[in-house]
Amino acid sequence: MDDIRIPFNRPCVVDTSLGFVERALASPIHAGDGTFTNQCQTIIEGELGVRKALLTTSCTHALEMAALLLDIRPGDEVIVPSFTFVSTANAFALRGARIVFADIRQDTLNIDETRVESLFSDRTRAIVPVHYAGVGCEMDTLTALAAQRGLRQRGVAVVEDNAHGLFGKWCGRPLGSFGVLATQSFHESKNFSCGEGGALIVNDPSLLDRAEIVREKGTNRSRFFRGQVDKYSWLELGSSYLLSDVLAALLASQLEQRVQIQARRHAIWKRYESELNEWAVVQGVRLPFVPSEADHTAHMFYLRMPSLDVRQRFIGHLRSRGILAVFHYLPLHLSDVGRGMGGRPGDCPVAEEVSDRIVRLPLYAALTEDEQDEVIAGVRAFRA
């Protein structure tokens, strides 16, 4: 990668990051649930208006916690979009669930809510919508479908995979506040990052105590540290899902500056949109679509090229100029594991088409105007 001058991503670091980490290192508590963990959780709870946010070691682990809390069992079915990261499905498959793959919408690339009901069976236990690129799914429809089904069977939960969508909104309501549970990502590629990290959002009050237990190796250790019990013991299945407070310090420094970080990302996103629109029309390229109901997070700016061949030539063209643009997910239903669960070519045609054509441009808070000038000039110089 020595020839790359403008990478696809640079992890977010702010002017206070080093000071926050130094304070965490000077503290006697480096493990989870320290001062900075609590600070991050308080900010997230306040901004989203949710019952509880619990920092975790990754979004993947937050999804695994969700599967444990929902008591997902072998034979259960969980509906997920095929166009997503493997963790969305893997967390539930680990509990023995059969993954049912849903296609995505042509406009937002979110799960196609009009096709979800046809995927239900008597074994359906959860729907896991992914707010792709930080643009909200049709949550009213999805939650209504889950509620209707839940009246007739063991219950269908909505679990929001909000890895792209922290501080985004749908119809004025924060993403992450719709589902019984929701998950966040603080991976280095996200708007707010601590290298590796995540959070579980708990909106169902009946799951609050259990969520804390599952996160602490299946014990009531947190209650012990608060002086609520005189000893702690193993109560149910769980694992070690707590994020180190040293990493939480890095995250806290960014969350404190969330308004400035998001403003910068939106400025970059809007400039791409305005300066590439005319080129896109001429070249037969589609830019991101954001419905009026959505306040998106400027998590990514992508282009949908006319074909796989054009996409590959475009990536090579930018790379020759020292700019790294990348494709995205491969359809999960066509993976080895997905095929083992019954996935076949043609099951999710939109996901298959989008996977071949999508390419993402560099977008991070530290991207300078000069660097963005270079990216825009490089894109405009390409001919499909």
* Name of the CATH class of the largest domain: Alpha Beta
Give the proportion of residues in helices.
25-40%
Radius of gyration: 21 Å
Distance between the termini: 25 Å
Helix-strand sequence? HHEHEHEHEHEEEEEHHHHEEHHHEH
DSSP strand (E) fraction? 5-15%
Can you characterise this structure?
This protein has 384 residues and is α/β, with parallel strands linked by helices. It has 2 domains: 239 residues, Type I PLP-dependent aspartate aminotransferase-like (Major domain) (Aspartate Aminotransferase, domain 2), CATH 3.40.640.10; 123 residues, Aspartate Aminotransferase, domain 1, CATH 3.90.1150.10. The protein has 14 helices and 12 strands. Strands 1-9-8-5-4-2-3 form a 7-stranded mixed β-sheet, sandwiched between helices. The chain has a 3-stranded antiparallel β-sheet with strand order 7-6-10, with no helix packed on it. A two-stranded antiparallel sheet has the order 11-12. Helix 1 packs antiparallel against helix 9 and helix 2 crosses helix 9. The longest helix is centred in the last third of the chain and has 26 residues. The radius of gyration is 21 Å and the shape is globular. The model has no long low-confidence stretch (mean pLDDT 95).
